Amino acid sequence: LQTNQVDDFELGIRFLDDLGSFLLEVKDKDVKHAVAGLLVEILLPVAAQIKRETNIPALISFVGKLYGPTNELASKKQHKLAAYPLLTCLLCVSQRQFFLSNWVPFLNNALANLKNRDSRISRVALESLYRLLWVYMIRNNCDGNSATRTRLESICGSLFPKGNRGIVPRDAPLNIFVKIIHFIAQQKLDFAFKDVIFDLLACNRSQRSLYPERMNIGIRALMVIADGLQQKDEPPAMPKSMGPSASGTMQRLKKKTYITRPLTVDIARAIGLDQYYIPCRKAFDTILRILDTQVGRPLMMTAIQRGKEPDELLGGDVKPKLDLFRTCVAAIPRLLPEPMTYTDLIDILTRTTVHVDEELRTMAGNTLQNMLGEFPEWREHIIIAEITLLHNQLTDFYPAVLDEALRLLHQMVMTWKSAALQEKKKEQEKELTSENNVHAAPPLYVLNYASVLHAVEGLALVMLCQIRPQPRKIAISLLKEVKQIISILSLDNTDVPVITVLDEATPYVVRKYIEHVPMYERMSWNMDFTSICEKIAAIDTDICLVNSDKGNEYLQWDPWACALSGYAERKHLLMRCPSAVASAWPALYSRLIAVNAYVDPSMETDVLRSVSSSLRASSRIPSSASLSQLFTKIAAMLRWENMIDIRDSVVLGVGSMSAAAFETFFEDLSQRGILRDAMEKKMETNVRRRKRKDLLRLQIIRIIEVAVFRGLLESTMIDSLGNLSPFILDFIDSMRANLESDLDRDIAVVTMMRLHFSKLVAVIIDNVSPENRANLIPDEKKQSLFYLFIGWCSRTIASDKKNRENEVGSYVEQKAALAMTRLLSCGRIFEAQKSIGEDGYLYGWLEKLVSSANTTMQGEVEEMLAWMLELNESSHLLDWLMAQCYCQPSAVAAKCFRALVRVFSRRDFPCEFISLFVLCQAMLGDPNVADAAVHMIEILKRQFLDNSMVLSPQLAPGGGNISSPPVQLRSPVVTSSHSHCFPMDQQAVCRNLANSYPHLTITIFSEVSCRLEGARSQNQTNLIALLLPWVENIELVDPVAGEDACEGPRGWGSEEATQLLLNNLMYLTVCLAADHERELAELWRALALSFPANLPVILNYIYVVTVLSHEALLPYAKRVSVILAGVVGNRIAALLLEQLSTSSDSSRLTLERSDIPPYYKWKDEAAELRKDPIVEISSPMRESPMGDRFVGLCDDASKEGVRLLPMPAYGGYYSRLCTYLPPTTQPVQFFTR
């Protein structure tokens, strides 16, 4: 009905009047009731819209017409349900006087019907009562103090009987009673509190008993009244609907907003509630405590009895108490109990978050989040309380509850982050607006935030040990949120955020610990912790990569456990996040002890799957009875024979313990006598006991191996002088003695022991830098270990090049060979004089090792040789290594050469300069090491020739046109890459060297001649090639060769140099012509072309060797002549014709054989007749290179420009050309030229 315009209103009332007439006339009961219901539906909205009384005659007439007949109907039982609502509506739209005159009898009737056995009638009576009360209190403003009080006492006495535990009617909705109290409070606030709410909340009673419905109504009424007063709301509207609305009815309800901010004493005073508020809070305190005792703690999901259904638990007397509990939780933090401390309140709410009632759980979580936002100073305790609950009560036996609590903690931390962002924003705005712009100090409560955040990280670390993926995902989200909060709050008293450490450690962990998939696949992963967590969880272990043959079988059962072991290495979490680790440890330990209770070591059961996860992150282990019990069980499980997956997990877990825990564990083993049994050298006679002892030894070896692998060596097993601890040394020695014999033992166990013992020795040495290994293991123990390993790995280092990798011995042999290589680079070598002295017994084994076709060995050789050389400074070893560069295939030679370069790159090293200088030039021919060779040449130049610190332009091909950056010396690593910044052309580099240092020419030629004789074919090619630029420096000097030798430009030379060069070159031609004819021809040509004086000397030498041994050397003399004729044919012809035309040349000199190089001598017969000393042009050992007594034709030439060429030490190396010459006793058959 339109009530805005009188005409419209009157029109509607006429319609109502017609309906009223029809109601009075109709006799059918059902129709009468339907018409009455229709009138109620129309009148109720009208009554709600009327703010004051209406003076419209039509309405007054309508009320007067229907009131009497309807009152009569109400007295009849059959019409009561229809008449009560209509009578109520008529009173509600009537004038004030009519209402006050007629409502009392109806009120009394309604109050009497509240106790009616028919619940429908009692409910209708209540609905009528609370609408009439609204009209009485709100619209009509009561009717005098005493009368009003009497009415209100009567109403409240009926609804809330004194001394009764319940309300009347019992099953009515509580919000009706709340509204009734709200209506009363609009006019009579004092009455509403002192006479109604105080009674409902039992404020004036001290007994500890609950009246759930009454207290529920009292708390809700208090909240509604306080909200209305604080928001200065208009009086509440009249309740409209009296029942379910007809289908299709549109209802527009103004949404009520409730205040969540705390109702403080100051606010209560401001809105006039101060005298009532404190008693209510005290009552609220009592109610909360009783509720927690009766339906809080007993109904936590961790406390309920198994086998009971939720309906059974939450029904009966518990239901109203739970309703009251929900109201109380919803009222917080608006209403806070007094004198309960906030810590007690938070503890109650935190426990409630795992209540069996879902609605209560949700409300408690929301309340805690509201408190996080409202009370910054409480945040610390709220988070700590939730973490404590998770640690102490939510064990892994309640996975669903645990997940829900974790999600709640994540929501809380996110709420904290949002609040912190808003607070920071406000603070920044305040700073901008403040005049002095002085940064205010943060409140004191911020100082504790660091410890709380680290406690959250500690919990997350515990959850990362879960085998289920859901807690791990939440844990990662928590860690990310904590990092953001630390950043927002700009805290400077925190450790590094855990997620940062995990992200930074991830590449290291994936490379080192995740052996379950191939390396190329791992390298394609995103290297952040979140991605890796998902990847590792989904790993399908490749048994070809992780198995007992490879000695990493303890990794195969749980890839995630392996990863956690890596993250918990000392240098990562333990060192960088001590606070988080410290807060994680108690929870880990309690979980470990919880699992421990279910493990019976005498029965190999499938329970202890996650023990390694718990042991792994331990930062310390307390001394306690439970710990002793735990160690007892671990010791028993290490002997298990069948449950190998659990046993392996225990090995990984114990090996992953921190330094303090590890020492404690081994002290315990020692006290129990277990170590003594394991280290006993005497052979056990009983086969069964022998196998059990061997199994125990194997597990202890593996535990120490895992511990060393994880970096525990430095902190627990090595003293300040670099000595291995006596316990580890004794253990290794006892295992060595034990493994020397495998007679009558389980071959599978012994094989595993050998494999892991080899790995243990290797990993111990690997974990100490080579410079600090000098005192690690005593020499005699190194030697005995070496001989033990060499007996195991003969096939792996076999020199048969046809062996493929899968044919060269088992993994045991490979690991033994690796251990041997480590022993050789562990300080100075044992028995240095015998092992690596001249003809040392190690060289044969080393040669097999460097030439081994096994890929594992090939990867180890280079580093081993480098450290052996550096640590021992052995000239014999250096000579052997250079010899390997010449006599081994190019791939092996390259490794040996790189090992040399490594040593010289690190420091100045005593060496024989020329040998290395020649080697470097030869290695320039191998593209794999050409850059290393240039680097080495620079080192040698700086050490022996000049002070140049960078690559001189003359060394690089193309002279000064190189634009690439200089190569810095002392690079710690020499690359083995095939690509270079510019092409390393051997000829160009050697030519520049020859031009820069011509005085070294004959020394280098001598060294090359020596090296060529034992070198492989490819290396011979490189050696001959390097000679070409050097030979071009030489001018041959021979007094017998004739006057022509003194014409033209001059070079470097001497008679001794000429004899050595021609002797060696002829020898090489004889020996190597078949394989290297082209390279040798180049040498002869270069020698003939370099200086005019050289050709006559060469021809003279060809004449000499032909005379000395025409049978053996004539073919080669012819071959050299043909080679020379190809380039200087005309000159040769001219020289030969000149010699044919001269008179006999044998007038003074005759040729004789000699035992000493150059294996011949000229004898001057004329001088002999004059009794002068013989002039022998064959003295490489004389003091002066040219000789004072030299009588010949070139005496003047030496003074006219031939630069004297220094000879090598001891006259240089002469090739054994005498093997092709007849014996000295046989007379020389002389030919003229």
From TrEMBL:
<protein>
    <recommendedName>
        <fullName>Cell morphogenesis protein N-terminal domain-containing protein</fullName>
    </recommendedName>
</protein>
<dbReference type="Pfam" id="PF14222">
    <property type="entry name" value="MOR2-PAG1_N"/>
</dbReference>
<dbReference type="GO" id="GO:0005938">
    <property type="term" value="C:cell cortex"/>
</dbReference>
<dbReference type="GO" id="GO:0000902">
    <property type="term" value="P:cell morphogenesis"/>
</dbReference>
<dbReference type="GO" id="GO:0031175">
    <property type="term" value="P:neuron projection development"/>
</dbReference>
<dbReference type="InterPro" id="IPR039867">
    <property type="entry name" value="Furry/Tao3/Mor2"/>
</dbReference>
<dbReference type="InterPro" id="IPR025614">
    <property type="entry name" value="Cell_morpho_N"/>
</dbReference>
<dbReference type="InterPro" id="IPR016024">
    <property type="entry name" value="ARM-type_fold"/>
</dbReference>
<dbReference type="GO" id="GO:0030427">
    <property type="term" value="C:site of polarized growth"/>
</dbReference>
<feature type="domain" description="Cell morphogenesis protein N-terminal">
    <location>
        <begin position="2"/>
        <end position="416"/>
    </location>
</feature>
